[in-house]
Amino acid sequence: MGGHDHDHHHDHSELSETELRVRALETILTEKGYVDPAALDLLIETYETKVGPRNGARVVARAWADPDYRARLLADAKPAIAEFGYAGRQGEHLVVVANTPALHNMVVCTLCSCYPWPVLGLPPVWYKSAPYRSKAVKDPRGVLADFGFALPAGTDIRVWDSTAEIRYLVLPMRPVGTDGWSEERLSELVTRDSMIGTGLPILPHGLA
Predict the structure, then answer these.
(1) What is the 3-state secondary structure (H, E, C) of 11-39?
(2) Is the CATH number 1.20.1270.10 carried by domain 16-201?
(3) Which of 114, 129, 162, 194 is catalytic?
């Protein structure tokens, strides 16, 4: 394995601000018990390649840009998402719940790790961890703080427990300052964690 030594000479000065934030978040989540350190390589790979969550990001972007699609998505998510051709195992019986200024939704699976694969890809390592599954129900604000953000005091948090019968996708609020943006551009603001409820969309000025 020594042939890969040349890949590990990077120092922190070469890391972007986003990469540094990801490393810091990984450290916090490891300390909290959400992530097995041995699984971090997989977590990093999933984070960087963004395989899977891009499907969900396109769904969210269309809902932000098209009020009629948003209404169809919230009324019956399965056919609305099927308009994109996203379907398959782990995607049946999907319910989309919308965040508002008064309500923030967060998804957990307390029994195992039920997760809407067709729109979000593979579940992140921390989603399957016992600390996340237990604390998300008992102390959702604490979990959000662990993930690096706090909601206004007047915002309620609703935790949705996924099952084999029903999985959930969070429709985050559209960031301000994005009027007139194309769906493709809007989709770049949608993060996987914002569709689970443990994160927020990227702000427009946060894009490089």
Answers:
(1) CHHHCCHHHHHHHHHHHHHHHHCCCCHHH
(2) no
(3) 114
Query: Does 112 participate in catalysis according to the annotation?
Result: yes
Considering 16, 113, 129, 182, which one is annotated as catalytic? 113
The verdict on whether 114 is a catalytic residue reads: yes
pLDDT tens readout for residues 106-138: 999 988 778 776 778 778 888 888 899 999 999
Contact between 113 and 127 (Cβ < 8 Å): yes
Is residue 113 part of the annotated active site? The answer reads yes
| Span 130-174, pLDDT tens digits | 899 999 999 999 999 999 888 998 999 999 999 878 889 999 999
d(CA 59, CA 84): 8
Assigned token pair, 68: 């009629």
Token pair for 124 = 């992140």
| Known catalytic membership, residue 16 | no
